[in-house]
Amino acid sequence: MGQEESTDHKEVDLAQIQELCTTFMKECPSGALYLHEFKRIFGVQTESEEESAFMETLFRSFDTNQANFMEYVAALHLVLRGKLEDRLKWSFKVYDRDGNGRLDRQEVKQIIKIIYKIKMRTRDMNMTPCEVCDRIFELVDQDQDGQISLTEFMEGAQKDEWVMDLLTLDVNASSWFIQNWNKGP
Fold this sequence. Notes:
Elements: H1 14-27, H2 35-41, H3 49-62, H4 69-81, H5 84-95, E1 102-103, H6 105-120, H7 129-140, E2 148-149, H8 150-159, H9 161-167, H10 173-180
Antiparallel strand pairs: 1-2
Helix pairs in contact: 3-6, 5-8, 6-7, 8-9
């Protein structure tokens, strides 16, 4: 955590991109990707509430209604290989559900609950989502106005490894993508 670039350097080669394009066009013959297709392409099961909520949040952060193949690839590149600053800006956008440029406790708590459920599968979490949210605000809300600006978000994430882990939405996206991108429906 706290590194300049993504630490998972598994490359997606040209053959995989071609296969991804083939899958995209098979699932989205119109050339437009909608949320239900996005979930289906990545094998997200409807009974997996956490994954479904996370995928919806990710999809909405890139496009509100639909995405074309180029937007789709650009989004994947950002999540998988983007620079820290770009990933933090994108993460801020994911947290900022109302789009007002500031995060309140409710917005942070909502995303933390999703991340918390996903991460609980792989490791013990010794704090509740409310406690995590409170700690984030203690560490990041510099002017203590009850809201986190983009500047506070980026500076706070880079100062504390624990905060960085949560704010960058690091749920091992690279490994998940490599495992799931070609599962198909």
